[in-house]
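Note to self: the last two entries modelled the partners one at a time, which told us nothing about the interface. This time every component goes in together.
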Amino acid sequence: MAKLWINGDESAKQMLGRVLKERPLLLLPHPLHRIPLGVSNIVEIVGPSPSAKTEILLQVAVSCILPKSWNGVQYGGLEHSVLFLDLDCRLDIFRLSQSLKLRITEANRLHKITKKQKGVAVSNAITEHQCEYDDMDLFTECMKRFSYTRCYDSFEFLAALKVLHHKLEKERNTDGSGVHVLMIDNIGAFYWINRGFSSLPQWNPNRKNLSLQSVFETVVPEIKKLLLLHPMLVLATKMVTYQVKSSYSSWASGVASEVNIGKGTYREYMPSIWQSFVTRRILVRASDDKRKLQDQVCYLAEWLLPALNLTDEFVVGDAGILTLL
Amino acid sequence: MGALKSLKEEYAIIDANFLQFCASHGIFSVEDFLVHDVYTLVASTEQLSNSYRLKQGINQLLSIIETCHQPWMNGLMLLEDRKQNKRCLSTGCESFDMLLRGGLHEGHVTELVGPSSSGKTQVCFQAASNVAMKLGSVVFIDSGNSFSPTRIQQIVAYISGSAENKINGILQQAMRNIDCHAVFDIYALLNVLHQLKLKLKSQTGYQVRLIIVDSISSLIAPILGGSNAQGHALMVSVGYLLKELADRHNIALVVTNHMVGGEGGTLKPALGESWKNVPHVRLQLSQDHARNIYAVQILRHPYMASGRNANFMIP
Amino acid sequence: MVTDLLYNPGPNTIHGISRLRGGGKIESQREPVRSRRAREMEVLRLPLSASQKGRLISAGYTSIASLSSISPSQLALELKISETEVLEILKTASDGSRLESTGSSRTIVHGAQSAWDMLQEEETLVRITTSCADLDYILGGGISCKEVTEIGGVPGIGKTQLGIQLAVNVQIPSDYGGLGGKAVYIDTEGSFMVERALQIAEACSDDMVEYSCLYRKGSQACEVKRQPKDFLENIFYFRVCSYTEQIALINYLEKFITEHKDVKVVIIDSVTFHFRQDFDDMALRTRLLSGMALKLMKLARNFGVAVVLLNQVTTKYSDGSFHLALALGDSWSHASTNRIILHWNGNERYAYIDKSPSLRSASAPYSVTAKGIRNSASNNKRIKHT
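The predicted structure of the combined assembly is written out below.
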């Protein structure tokens, strides 16, 4: 009896099987495709402005909300819900709906081609109509999986996080759907406002300083608690600026580390509690290369954590992100 | 959100004991409560005698917090809202409208950036006249005494296609629709915007279609930089206020910015990197002096490729 | 379980959430239920010092409404500052929230004017003549009050002459079509010459006598000639020797003009002189210049004075050609409402409108004579509209 506890709960193989089933690895679209990402990974997409960070989030969102297949057509999506916390308050839903529609149309087109190749009969006018209705239904279903809120200051952000658990509980009870993806657009949005707070002289030593440090000392544990109960993949974008000379030197909180990439140097301004919370980091920026394909701007993506010495080049088209080979 | 004391009258559970408990943890307002870990607070009530009541108080605060943030909406609701409430306002200039696929979008903050005398104020006048004549009221916030009623009169005459002396009725109505505020510092701007916000919230009949701030860079430049971060903090707060006004009240917002010298002698937009995240749409204007034509190029747009440009003329 | 207790919402909340999530018509105002609670820190947007803001936020007063519910003496005790300071803070706060008590008047948000009213007002505004008919023509009648006009040119083109001419012309009485006001002349370079001013004043009063004799015969005889010295008495001259003095003076001008209500023109010659050399901290310079520009704009608007800034030009190389650009270039470019550039064209002096919200781009010739600025005497003069 006393020896039972030492026998172990399960073998490593059993554990691997269980983990892969409960916490599957998600295959995300370019440029996040190089590294397998599972739930409870915190991915930071870092870059100056403009560098297509929000665009990456939207393309991931489209891939998430599409189903794997619908009415026989393969869409290749992940069928997950997406929670989008917009701290920049800049998202225009039109872009998401446009990309989604184009993806659906493209998948339908490919499906028709494969059907023709297999020799299946081509649809006639009535089924065309039906297809349109089906497409609308599919579109509606997908859009319903995308949840959005915006936060105009760090208090609204904290408030949203603190009560997110309740919302997810309710959804789980009604829909039963499991995995979510949490997207935060521009985690550093309130940096200056919070810095303005912390520079105001504090008159009450008891009170917590409303600085970026203390806000994130609450944000990170809240997200951790959330992840315990509702496993999610967290994608956060972060805007960085090029090295500025002396105005950051008087700032006390946070670790002033620099990331030296290519020609520029980016300064890390987020508190260390957030930096250590992040498990993966990718840098995107506009390419300096003056060669422009048909007047389009090229972007470069490079994984910093884990550090792969590879740079992917991509452009942003109407349908989404196209990687250049 | 405010001080906890102000919640006393409304919620019986937030009584003097609860306030004292909160004060012992350094919590004086709802904002302070947000930066504290709820579980630690609850754990600290265990040792006290009235712990159940304190927990109920914490619970009450949490339910208040639930109403403090914007509600969650799904993609479909957002799209519906966009279709029903946020339309495009024509600027009165065809090629400009074609570049933006309709014109200035309600709910967007559009930035016009360009060197001196590149047509920014003229484009603002034209948009203001067009919207005032056809669509609704316009608020023009002027920081450089550049609002010229005679110029507006000329543009209204041009748009309506008749001679200046024959358009009195239309002119009067259009010009009554444009309200001009002269502001000369950032606090005055914040004041005007807040008052507008209050007015839009409280008076249901009052509706504004277009707000123009010309120029926002001259208001922010005196406070940006320096030893403390107040300048940047104010700039970002103004940005959020503009976005909130645009989104919640379905207003098209236009701000103008000037350019400063950058690396290698090229010009770049003023207000720095932190401002780049504020506008939804950024348009760069320039003037070809030789041919008297103006050019506009998209620097940033939520769903259109940057780099697209068009030429236009100013009447 | 603690989580159950914590996340078990009360009846209010569920009702609130279901109202928020309700289907049906999407309202354009997605306002959370407790709309009366201000979400942002209103105190931060008041023009108070950082330490005052810090004290207010530390004590928990984040909204303006919360300040109104407490008595000043109690607030003074809580914030540990004097009662006079508290009264000042409360006054700033109440200035900021004046709308909440006003009624439902159509246009006004406090301080606004509709464009129609401004149009009516503008038609009655008198402009300051430059004594050169061509120049007046392209300016729409002259230098307008309520605006900041910048005049730039290479040395020797006549900027100071034009400045002095305007300082004299503003004093032309209203029955001669002028403003009948006084002038403030701020000299940063030391280029003001009293003898020249006397000469110009004399020529001006001669012109006035001629005008009255020619056009106002009949009931009034030719009036007594106005002494040139009277003209000089109405020009308030200030000499500044550093940028700090310049900024201090501009800050003081508001008070000065409140006391001398008939000042109608402020001329600064030249406005950027002290900022061009030896400025180590460029960011500070930008801040000072833009702050100064805003103050001048405010002066022009609130007191209805014409502010004339004289500036130097440099040549800029762009698009393959040289052209004239004002000193301090882009960062100063938005500081004026109108901009006129004076330049040489062969042997002639020309004035060219570089920037104006209401005037067309045009150039006109002028000349500097013993009497001051006058029309160009050359035969092939022409006004060119571009």
